[in-house]
Amino acid sequence: MKRLKQKNYLIYMLPAIILISVFVYIPIIQNFYYSLFRMNSYTDEMVFVGLSNYKKIFADEIFYISLKNNIYYAVISIVCQVGFGTVLAILLESKLAGKLRVFFRNIYFLPSVISVTAVGLLWYFIYNPNMGMLNSLLIKMGLENFTHAWLGEPNIAIFAIIAMSQWQYVGYIMILIIVAIQKIPIELYESAQIDGANGLQKALKITIPNIKETLLVTSVITVIGSFKLFTEVYVMTSGGPYNSTQVLGTYLYNTAFMYDEMGYAAAIAVIIFVITFSVSILQIKISNSGKE
Amino acid sequence: MKKNLSILLVLIMVMSLIFTGCGGNDTPEVKDEGEEVVTIKFLHRWPQEPYNTFFEEVVSDFEADNPNIKVDMQSISNDPFKEKIKVVLGTDDAPDVFFTWPGEFTNRFIRAGKVYDLTEEMNSNGWKESYVYSQLEPFVLDEKIYGAPFRVDGKIFVYNKELFEQAGAQVPSTWDEFLTTCQKLEEANIVPIAFGNQSPWAVSHYIGTINQKIIGENIYKAYDPAVGDFSDPGFVKALEEFEKMVPYFNANANAIKHDEARNNWMAGKAAMMYVEIVEIPEIESVCTDEFRDNYGVFNFPIIEDGKGNQSYLTGYPEGFVVSGTTKHPKEAVAFLKYLTGKEVGKKEALELGYINGAKNVVEKGEIADVVYDNTQIVFEAERMVNWLDSGLHAKVCNVYLAELQKLMDGMTTPEEVMQKVQEKATEVKDEF
Fold first, then answer.
1. Chain B, nearest residue to A154 by Cα
2. Do B405 and A43 touch (CB under 8 A)?
3. Which of A99, A273, B9, B406 has its CA 20 to 30 A from that of B25?
4. Cβ partners under 8 Å of residue B130, min gap 6
5. Minimum-distance CB partner of A12 among B10, B82, B264
6. List of chain A residues whose C-beta atoms are within 8 Å of the C-beta of residue B405
7. In CATH terms, are B38-153+317-381 and B155-314+393-430 the same topology?
8. Partner-chain contact A19 B89, CB within 8 Å
9. What whole-number distance in Å separates Cα of residue A235 and Cα of residue A223?
10. Residue A60 touches partner B, C-beta closer than 8 Å
11. Which of A19, A43, A257 is opposite residue B112, by nearest beta carbon?
12. Which residue in B89, B256, B403 is closest to A130 by CB distance?
């Protein structure tokens, strides 16, 4: 009787297992397999090339530009979104915010609910060199020397895109941290108050240590998000000018669908997978360590 | 017993989940008269109005004339089309008649056996002769005909007469005159050339033209991915000539889009622009009456010491082909013939302002003069030169275009550009 029950478990789990395998595990394995071939999407012809796609990637200038841009994005996002987001959260949860707390919370959160494509177009116009808001503003302020073709200059373009993402997501991270702050028992603050702690001391000695878990998790989310970056770049520059804003996601897309190198694209995908997978393992480790 | 039943039920559910969607539906519809109705799939790249309505009407007219053929029409807009067509052609569900750009863009599909060879049909009943040959030639590969032109195009300069007058500039006919004109405009504080190169296909049109004018017939061989090596010194020379005109573009050309540059030109912020003839109806439809009389066109100036035939024109038609894997070639070819023929061509010219490749579709006076006259430029050209971007192998093109953007910013030299292109071309050749 017991045996039969166990068998039943398996059968009930079967649909989920099959679905996950078909849509997640099998494609990952297949993708690795495809990365060993030279192929395109419109023929059945596949030429086995072994690991030469990987060899090519590690000699590919654009791959390193992409990787570098992803890393820029990750580092800046951690500093701005997690760092500045925490500061915002602490300020909004402190007495300073007062009655405007909810108002500001919504204001900061709002950008993250707008679709990335819409935000991308919006910022595309802000950055426009001739009629864009940013350059007009700089000229009005008498700072003509600081005007740029923000998305057209290879040294600046990627940072212009990164800046947009910070604007969009800082509020989202802030909300996650606010939730964590609200879970901190009020008694801790009360006893600190009795001991004569000021606001800054309370933030550093009570708030930050207590939201450590959330900080780590949001950092990991941000890093993984940085390596999956695609839409922002695709909408604003499509990787140009001359590949200076290419990130792994857009480079993968371009190689697959513009340059007909499916196998090469699959190899790039494997590398993205390895990076995000390692970060995820890190995340799992961290969240396990958080069990009090 | 009950348990077994539930296990069975679960299994059935799992199976139905997996196999839903796997079934095919290939049974042909049968009409009352017992005649079999064949459905062909048709894919074009104009989902926006008024084009979509135009195609709907063409399809329903065709269906009325051919009751045994049903046309299932779909459309994808320009940029996504370039990617999606590659994916659908890899499936069994490929469209029977689909849009394409002739040249390397189509040739790779031909090499993969995805395009139907029309030579036999074209040579019978005078079908081939119904087109202007310079417009059909782009669809020829290894002496076989694979498609038919739907919309002819060519690249010309448009210029603002008032601004030219202000600067005392002349309409140039040679390259040297052209540079002098630019100089004069510049001296009068007028931006000589509007240029939006955020998507770098824009610069490829200049380079394609200059390459042909300087190098001549050798470009056709150089662009062929199987043999081309770009070793001709003319390629470097072309870039050096191009560098001479770079200072006359508007600022930040790499940061603005082609459409934006065109709007600037129409607003009188620049004197000239290199545009496609198919843009003329668009310009006409949005510009003011005053502006309409205030602009003229001229051909790309001739380069006197160039080896190329100076009466060739940059610009390739767009057209349709039949799928190489179609199950109904006869019906698909019939539709293609109708779609690119004179009857549809006339409707197309009147309603959309586009001219197809069939002979004598419209007379002067039937459509706007400016459209008619500019189309004559295309028909008078001895031979068409493919757009550089769709004429090159995708990998080579990508490197070429990125390097050209760099060249415009002064971050590289003509020699370095061509060296990178040669390296990529060699790599591509090895894969053939």
1. B406
2. no
3. B9
4. B341, B342, B358, B359
5. B10
6. 240-242
7. yes
8. no
9. 21
10. no
11. A43
12. B256
Torsion on CA atoms B361, B365, B371, B375, rounded to nearest 10: 40
Q: Which CATH number fits domain B155-314+393-430: 3.40.190.10, 3.90.580.10, 3.40.50.300, 3.30.300.30?
A: 3.40.190.10
Per-residue pLDDT of A243-286, as tens digits, reads 899 999 999 998 988 888 889 999 999 999 999 889 888 877 87
ipTM computed for the complex = 0.78
Q: A61-114+169-289: which CATH topology?
A: MetI-like fold (1.10.3720)
Tokens 């290419």, located at residue: A246
- For the stretch B5-60, pLDDT in tens is 666 666 666 566 555 544 444 444 444 555 688 999 999 999 988 888 999 999 99
Instruction: Kindly give, in sequence order, each residue whose CB lies less than 8 Å from that of residue B271, ignoring residues fewer than 6 positions away.
Output: B159, B160, B163, B164, B167, B169, B185, B190, B191, B192, B193
Cα(B11)–Cα(B219) distance, integer angstroms: 63
- Label residues A58-86 b or e (16+ Cβ within 10 Å = b): eeeebbebbbebbebbbebbbebbbeebb
Cβ-based contacts of B394 with chain A (< 8 Å): 258-260
| Interface residue A252 vs chain B (CB under 8 A) | no
* Residues B89 and B116 sit within 8 Å (Cβ to Cβ): no
What 3-state class would DSSP assign to A102?
Answer: helix
Here the tokens at position B195 are: 């240029």
Comparing CA positions, the residue from B283, B144, B287, B308 lying closest to residue B214 is B308
Other beta carbons less than 10 A from residue A37's beta carbon: 18
Domain boundary assignment for chain A: 61-114+169-289
Instruction: Classify domain B38-153+317-381 at the CATH topology level.
Output: D-Maltodextrin-Binding Protein; domain 2 (3.40.190)
CA distances from A71 to A41, A222, B314, B401 (A): 30, 11, 42, 26
Residue B402's CB is within 10 A of a number of other CB atoms, namely 22
Amino acid sitting at position B21: G
Peptide bond into B50 cis (omega under 30): yes
What's the CA gap between A232 and A161, in Å, rounded? 7
* Cis bond upstream, residue A241 (ω within 30): yes
Is the CB of residue B361 less than 8 Å from the CB of residue B349?
yes
Closest-CA residue of chain A to B196 = A152
The verdict on A42 touching B (C-beta cutoff 8 Å) is yes
Nearest to B89 among A18, A42, A261 (CB): A42
pLDDT one-digit tens code per residue, A52-95: 999 999 999 899 999 999 999 999 999 999 999 999 999 998 87
Cβ within 8 Å of B, A 113-132: 128-130
Q: Report if pTM > 0.80.
A: yes
Say yes or no for a CB contact (<8 Å) between B256 and A129. Answer: yes
The CA distance from B226 to the nearest CA of chain A, in Å, is: 16
Residue range A148-167: average pLDDT?
Answer: 91
- The structure tokens listed for A203 are 């933030």
Per the CB < 8 Å rule, is A45 touching B256?
no
